[in-house]
Predict the 3D structure of the following.
Amino acid sequence: MSELIETKITLHYGSTNPENPLFNHQMDLSQLTPILNGMNMLLRDANKIFNDDQHEIKVRLGEGAMKRGCLEIVFQLFQSPEALDVLRGIGITVVGGTVSLSGAMEAIRVLRGRKIKTVRATDNPEEIELESVDGVKVKCSPSAKKLVTHPSFRKHVDQVFSAPFSAAGADSIALGIVEAETNEEALISFSLNDADALSVPDEVFETEVTETQITAIVKFRSASTKSIEGWHVEIGQREYKVDILDSSFLSKLDDAETGFNFGKAYRADLLKIETFKSATQRKSTEFRVVRVYI
């Protein structure tokens, strides 16, 4: 068995108010417990997604130091060298001596606690677009999308990086990664303005809408050449009412030489739209015909 790789992670909760326990390196246990659990579980949530729990991780408390005006919490993360690095998977890396956020963490910060409405495939198979209920869009990898839309992971990010601003009265929160060889600490700081950015909404999705481009064989059952709406087509032995977005196809229907026949199978590019309503736990599927190969 390979020797586990250790990474030292630090969290700093600071206050400039001498009356706040944080100023004197203290925190109420009721405020500290969610942070400890949140950090432990967000790492484990990510490991389950990226490594399918095939590689065990260990998360332990380490020895911290006294730093003026803040409480420092030290974690020791142990993971297999064969596994995908959990921190990198989350989007926490060290670049040029400072901690940088990307991937899931950056997408969460862009969304700023908004509910997600649409998950949309892009032309790039390595990229997914997320759109909030008020139209904010952000792109990330499919694996990062799993974290951004994961209620447990989002809850634990909130517990570590957002809730302490109000629960413990923190003025600032900093995340550090300690370089193993030099013991130098790279940091990224979060201000009160970042509290909303890393918070979790009551529900991650309002209504989850997933859009995917597919190619399939379709059979037209009924149609109106005067409208793009109200067409009935058979897809996978099931009939759907669809819109036709292919204007070229519509124009060809009036041409006798086109040879269009109802009931004949045609290859078509489709936009598949799947809608899931969390309140009712119901899922529906609809299609739009983007192009017909005729």
About this structure: The chain has a mean pLDDT of 89. The longest strand covers residues 205-222. The first helix runs from residue 29 to 51. DSSP finds eight helices and 15 strands in the chain.
